[in-house]
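Exercise: predict the fold of this chain.
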Amino acid sequence: MSTAKRRRILIVDDERDVGLTLKVVLETYGFVVDNFTDPVVALKNFKPNLYDLFIIDIKMPIINGFELYSEFKSVSNNQSPKAIFVTALSELGSYENYKKCLSPKLGERHFIQKPISNIQLLNQVYSMVN
């Protein structure tokens, strides 16, 4: 039996089908995935230092993806957890201030526009967790 650590990913996307699809693809490739459709429930169930990567939708009700990431970061003693932000928005517009604070950093944060191909998802995830 392999002693390699299985990488754990947290997905938060209010579109049930999107989150489920990402979960199935990632689990097929050996990742352990927790998936939430409600950002408030995700925050209530969040356990610091458990996840290797977050995949977070930007546009969600009550708490947007940037706010949720900031909350995760705050609970994690301000460590910079790795995150992929996903969005169907081609223009982030009202999220511009958040984007400036959380701009992509090589190996730490990345933005992917929906729809996401399996290959695009896997390439980005592997580049961030290995």
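Check your answer against the key: The mean pLDDT is 85.
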